[in-house]
Design a protein that fits this description.
The chain folds into three domains: 2-277, Spore Coat Polysaccharide Biosynthesis Protein SpsA, Chain A (Alpha-Beta Complex), CATH 3.90.550; 290-345, no CATH class; 367-471, Sandwich (Jelly Rolls), CATH 2.60.120. The chain is built from twelve helices and 31 strands. Helix 3 (94-108) crosses helix 7 (217-228) and helix 6 crosses helix 7 (217-228). The longest helix is centred in the first third of the chain and has 15 residues, at 94-108. The protein is globular and about 70 Å long. The chain starts with a strand and ends in an 8-residue tail after the last strand.
C-alpha cells in the first residue's frame, strides 16, 4: 500500500504575534520541543511507513514567501523520501490547496492514498497518532473519506465538530458542523459521539477531485487549468498564477465536508487521543508546554522572583519578572507584547489595530531567511541600513547589482569569496571591501564553516527589491 503525505503549509498564525508573522508563521517556529511544528508534521508523516505502507512521495503545499523556509527546514531533516514542493501564487485556503495536491499526486500515482495534515499542529504521543493513522489508511476505499477526529477534552468554540456513531475503531460520520456557540458545544460534549475537527483527511486523489468538482466547479476548473499550465524548476512546482487566482477561496470543510450528505461518498472517522493541539493561541501553548514549580513557561533569557502562572519567551534580550502572575510576555527584536492571560484571545483585536499603523510588524521579523542562510537588520534609517548576514557552508548569494545603493562588507566570522565586477578575491576575518552602486557582485562561502559579515548599505532607496540578478542557483531569476 502506497501513501502520499500532504503537508498543508500556508497558515499565518497571527494569534501568536509577535512570535508568528505573515512571512514567518507559527509552523516554522520551535514552540514545543527542539524542532519546528512543520518539521514535526513531516516526521509524523514519515513515521507512518512500515512493512505494509510505503511512502510514494511527500507533497508540501506552501507559497512564495515561505519557500526558502521550507527548503531550509527540510534540509535540516535530511530526508530520504522524495519530496515535491508546490507553490501557491496566493493564499486561497485549504480546498484549492488540496485540489492542487490531489492533481499532483494523481499524475504520479493515481492509486496512492493521500494523507492530508496541517503543518502547524502539535501531537504529543507519536505512537497513538501512528496507530490511529494506520487504522484510517486501512479503511480507505473508493469513494471513501476517512478523517481523524480529535477526542474532545472540553467544550470549545474554536473548533468545528464531527457527529459520528459506532463502537468500533472506524466509525460512521453523519455531519460536519461549523464552530458552535458555547451552549451548543456543551450539549455536543454531553451527548458524546462528537469529535473536534482537526483538519486531517485520508482519501484517494480521485475521491477528492470528484467531490470538489461536484461541490465547487469553479475551484475544480481554475485549479485544474493552473496545474495543467504549471512551471517547474530545480526546487519548486508553480501552478499558473492567472488561472490559480481565479479560484474561489474556501476551506475543505465548507467546500466539501459540510456537504457530504449530497455526495456519493462514505465518510468514516477514527478517534485520535494523542495530546493534539492546533496551537492556535497562547492559551493552547499554556496547556501543553512543560511548566516550572510556579506554573510558568519560560524560554530564552528569563529570570524571575515570586512569579506565577506566566508565559515569557525572550528572543534577543533579557526578561526579568518580579512579583507578577498570570501574564504573557513576548520579546522579539522589534516588538514586546505584555498581556493578561485572561485576555489572550483578544490578541486578534490587537492585530487589527496594528494593521492600521504597524503593518510591517505583522509581516516580517528583523531576521529574514534566504536559501543561502539569513540576514538580520540591526539598524535602519532613510539613508542607511546595517545588516548581519549569515551564509551557510557551500552557499552563495546570487550574482547581482543594485541601482540605488552601495554596500560595505566587513567579515566578522569565517572566510568570504567575493566577486566584484570581473575580480574574484578572498576576504578573511576583519577584512573589508566596498561595492559601488551598479557594480556586479557576489558573496560566497566556499568553506566548511559559517560565514558572517556586517553589511552597511547607503543610498536613496534601500528596499529589498533593488536587486537585478544575473545568475542564481535558487530559481530567483525573473520568470
Amino acid at each position: 500500500m502506497k501513501i502520499s503525505p500532504i503537508i498543508l503549509c500556508g497558515g499565518s498564525g497571527t494569534r501568536l504575534w509577535p512570535l508568528s508573522r505573515k512571512n514567518f508563521p507559527k509552523q516554522f517556529l520551535k514552540l514545543v520541543g527542539d524542532s519546528t511544528l512543520f518539521q514535526q508534521s513531516v516526521n509524523r508523516a514519515l513515521a507512518l511507513e512500515n512493512n505494509n505502507i510505503q511512502i510514494e512521495e511527500v507533497l508540501i503545499i506552501t507559497n512564495e514567501n515561505h519557500r526558502f523556509l521550507v527548503l531550509e527546514q527540510l534540509d535540516e531533516l535530511n530526508l530520504k523520501a522524495p519530496v515535491r514542493i508546490l507553490l501557491e501564487p496566493e493564499p486561497k485556503n485549504t480546498a484549492p490547496a488540496l485540489t492542487l495536491a490531489a492533481l499532483a499526486a494523481q499524475d504520479f500515482n493515481s492509486d496512492s492514498i493521500l494523507v492530508v495534515t496541517p503543518a502547524d499542529h502539535y501531537v504529543k504521543d507519536l505512537n497513538q497518532f501512528t496507530q490511529a493513522m494506520h487504522e484510517a489508511i486501512k479503511a480507505v476505499q473508493e469513494k471513501t473519506i476517512v478523517t481523524l477526529g480529535i477526542n474532545p477534552t472540553h467544550a470549545d468554540t474554536g473548533f468545528g465538530y464531527i457527529d459520528y456513531k459506532g463502537d468500533g475503531n472506524v466509525k460512521d460520520v453523519f455531519t460536519f458542523k461549523e464552530k458552535p456557540k458555547l451552549e451548543s458545544a456543551k450539549q455536543m460534549i454531553d451527548l458524546g459521539q462528537h469529535a473536534w475537527n482537526g483538519g486531517i483527511f485520508i482519501l484517494k486523489p480521485k475521491t477528492w477531485i470528484d467531490a470538489i468538482q461536484t461541490c465547487n466547479i469553479e475551484i475544480f476548473t481554475s485549479i485544474t487549468h493552473a496545474w495543467q499550465h504549471k512551471k517547474a524548476d530545480q526546487f519548486f512546482e508553480r501552478p499558473n498564477s492567472e488561472y490559480f487566482k481565479q479560484s474561489p477561496s474556501d476551506s475543505i470543510d465548507y467546500a466539501v465536508m459540510e456537504k457530504i450528505n449530497e455526495l456519493d461518498v462514505v465518510v468514516k472517522l477514527v478517534l485520535l487521543d494523542a495530546g493534539w493541539s492546533d496551537l492556535g493561541s497562547f492559551a493552547a501553548l499554556d496547556e501543553i508546554a512543560e511548566k516550572d514549580k510556579g506554573s510558568n513557561i519560560f524560554k530564552g533569557d528569563v529570570v524571575c522572583i515570586n512569579t506565577k502562572n506566566t508565559i515569557a519567551i525572550a528572543s534577543k534580550k533579557n526578561i526579568s519578572l518580579l512579583g507578577v502572575k498570570n501574564l504573557i510576555v513576548m520579546e522579539t527584536a522589534d516588538s514586546v507584547l505584555i498581556a493578561n492571560k485572561n485576555d489572550a484571545q483578544s490578541i486578534k483585536d490587537l492585530v487589527k489595530v496594528l494593521e492600521k499603523k504597524h503593518q510591517h510588524l505583522l509581516d516580517v521579523h528583523t531576521r529574514v531567511n534566504r536559501p543561502w542562510g539569513w540576514f538580520e537588520t540591526l539598524e535602519e534609517t532613510s539613508t542607511f541600513k546595517v545588516k548581519r548576514i549569515h551564509i551557510n557552508s557551500g552557499k552563495s548569494i546570487s550574482l547581482q547589482r543594485h541601482q540605488h545603493r552601495s554596500e560595505s562588507w566587513v567579515v566578522v566570522q569565517g572566510e568570504a569569496t567575493v566577486i566584484k565586477d570581473r575580480q574574484e578575491f578572498v576576504l578573511k576575518q576583519n577584512e573589508s571591501t566596498y561595492i559601488e552602486k551598479n557594480e556586479v557582485h557576489r558573496l560566497s562561502n566556499n568553506t566548511n564553516d559559517i560565514l558572517q559579515i556586517i553589511e552597511v548599505q547607503s543610498g536613496i532607496y534601500l528596499g529589498e527589491d533593488d536587486i537585478i540578478r544575473f545568475d542564481d542557483q535558487y530559481g530567483r531569476l525573473e520568470r
